[in-house]
Each structure stands twice: as C-alpha cells, then as structure tokens.
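Predict the 3D structure for this chain.
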Amino acid sequence: MRAIIIANSPAPERPGSFRLREGDWIIAADGGAATALQWGWTPDTVIGDLDSLPQELQPRLKAAGCRFITFPEDKDQTDLELALWHAVQGGATEIVIMGVRGGRLDQTLANMLLLSRPEWAEVDIRVLDGQQEAFVVRHQSTIRGRVGDVVSLIALTPQVTGITTSGLKWPLHEGTLTFGSTLGISNVLTEPVAQVRVREGVLLVVHSGKRLAVSG
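Done. Predicted structure below.
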C-alpha cells in the first residue's frame, strides 16, 4: 500500500509529474490538509495538534469523511513524524512525502533527517518537492531521470562505506563519504538510469531534474 503524506509547508510546490493511484492513502500532517485541498485532493486522515489547520476547513474535511487523529500541542514529535508512524503502523510499504521544505530551517532539516530513522528502514520513503526528490539508500537503489540532472550524495551516518555508483559523471567504486563532507554534492546523470550501492551506512540521495521519473 502506498501512503501520500502532505506536510505543512508555507510554500508547497506540487510535483508536476506526480499522479495519484487508485487506493492511495492520503494523510495530511495538520495544515497539510489545506494544501491537499488546494491541489484537489481530499485527505483520508488528518493527524496533528491542528494548530496550523484553518478551523473553517475542518467541517468541510469531516463532511468528506476525513478521519481526524488529534494530539495535544505539547507533544514529543512533529506532526510529520506522527504521520509517518501512522502510515507505517497502518501497513504502508511505500510512502511519498510532499510539502516538507520552506519556512523554518530547523523543521526543514528535521523533516529530511526523518528519512534515516532505522525503525522504518524496510519502507520505501521518498520526499518530493517540485522537480526534486530525496530518499535514503541503505543497500542499493535506482535513480531515474534525464541526462544532465543533478544528483547529490550525502552521508547521514558518521561514515558511509562501499559506495559504488554507475550512470553518474563522477562515479564512485567502493568509495567512502563522511558525515558533513560535501564531496558528493552536485554530481550529474550521464544516463537516464543510474545505480547507487552502499555496503554500510545511510546515504541520502537528492535528485534535481526537469522531469522526475516518479511513478504515479
């Protein structure tokens, strides 16, 4: 099952090539419900403390059958983290997150680092933002796009070892990236399909292109 999570970005950009599939589970993290409605999507679930969801939208969402899962404002997780937990516990094996960028730098950074949580290592989680996507690699993954697209590799653990890539302008073979290093920034696709393999560690891939090959 695929879950679509929409976070509460102050300036959300809908991925242009993305399309919903029949059976997608749409989860809005608090004010992300307003973004979903703006995009013509009705959330199945709204989760959070509801501090950023306009009150006038709540009756409309409830009338459409949207389920509300509310938490107190004094909580230990962000609304996006709560939405991720809910999706995983509900059986989602694939999660697409939108609306994570913009606004406060601390929240944007925390949103991206959520991808590295070991508790959902077996779930395919991707962030989409306009013509950008981000996901983590723990073993191997495929990047699909256009020749010339920018691809950056960023270590999310002290060391990521055994990195081997193909289809990139500056390939790695059993390479190592360390946390905080910019060595993997701004590589370039030389083929429409590239491969990334990792022996140990967690690697963040950020792919920026004119048209992402994200299935909808």
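The first helix runs from residue 32 to 38.
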